[in-house]
Design a protein that fits this description.
This protein is of the alpha/beta class. The protein has a single domain (14-142), classed as P-loop containing nucleotide triphosphate hydrolases (Rossmann fold), CATH 3.40.50. Helix content is 26%, strand content 30%. The chain has helices at 4-12, 42-51, 92-95, 114-118, 120-130, and strands at residues 17-19, 28-35, 64-73, 76-85, 104-110, 136-142. Strands 1-3-4-2-5-6 form a six-stranded mixed sheet, sandwiched between helices. The radius of gyration is 17 Å and the shape is globular. It starts with a helix and ends in a 7-residue tail after the last strand. 20% of the residues are buried.
Length: 149
């Protein structure tokens, strides 16, 4: 018989399985918004998370892109709705409307772009004014793979 510590470690090491999205029933639904300045790699992160492929040829997002996929984790099916928002200054007032009902917000900055780093505080301020207090906020420093950083 496994003790509680061994069972907990086994559960922590369980991998997620990406499922087919056709007619999928789910136990939980999570809305995830990806925000940050333009050019920090938000779309690349979204594609990598959903397909496990890297596509460095993406073009700037206009307004938002939406992607939904399903994963199985610990015996439950989760629907992840990812809202990949644009980072251009002129669209920021529009994308705030997508913050509502977010379960998770991911603020992305590029480690080779000090302007994107300096914008983090403003992005988080906007999130806190538009999202529920229960919304979890994550910060990702992207582009660590670049040679000239």
């Amino acid at each position: 018989m496994e003790d509680d510590k061994e069972k907990s470690n086994k559960d922590d090491n369980e991998k997620c399985e990406v499922l087919s999205s056709e007619n999928q029933q789910f136990d939980y639904n999570y809305k995830i918004i990806i925000i940050g300045n333009t050019g920090v790699g938000k779309t690349c992160l979204t594609i990598k998370a959903s397909t496990d492929q890297f596509d460095g040829s993406s073009v700037p997002t206009l307004s938002f892109d939406y992607l939904a996929f399903y994963i199985r984790y610990k015996g439950k099916t989760l629907k992840l709705e990812i809202w990949d928002t644009c980072g251009q200054e002129e669209f920021r007032s529009i994308i705030k409307s997508y913050f509502a009902n977010a379960s998770l917000a991911v603020v992305v900055y590029a480690i080779d772009d000090s302007k994107s780093f300096n914008s983090i505080e403003e992005w988080i301020r906007q999130l806190k004014s538009q999202c529920s207090p229960e919304t979890k906020i994550f910060l990702i420093g992207n582009k660590a793979d670049l040679e000239d950083k």
